[in-house]
Structures are given as structure tokens and as C-alpha cells.
Amino acid sequence: MSVVIIGGNECMQREYKNLCKAYNCNVKIYPKMSSCVNNIGKPDLLVVFTSTASHKLVKKAIGITSSDSTIIERSHSSSLSALRCILDKHTS
Question: Where are the domains of the chain?
Fold first, then answer.
């Protein structure tokens, strides 16, 4: 399963990657707005941490993936346990 994470804490990127690897997921993480957001592709799951992502970043990411069969999951908390709950819900 491919996962894209929008927002989150920059210092937690390694933790997000390790957790996704434990669930056998390929992951791309975009904590900030950058030109790389255009390279999201067609993920199976888009995780948006709304408390740490800018409105512009969220709008762009959802606009890119909205026409696909991508599952969009929003979470106000950008904690590891919030990501774990989302992955539990969608990978089992």
C-alpha cells in the first residue's frame, strides 16, 4: 500500500517512515509546502495532519488526488498513535 503524509512534524519523519514500514507501506512525507508536492502520484491512502499543514498545502494535495480512488484520511493530531490508528483502519 502506498501512503502519502501531508503535514506532521519534521522531527517525526523518521518515526512516520518506520511505522509505515512496519505496516509494509511505501510512504512519502511532505511536512511543508514545496514543489515536490506535485509528485504525489496516485497513493492508496492520503493522510492529512490538519493541525500542522497549511491550508494551501492541504488544498493542493487534495486537488491532485481527488479524481483518483485515493482514500483521504484527516487527523487533527500529528502523533504517532494517530497515524497507527489510521494505518490499523486501512491496512487490515
Answer: 6-91
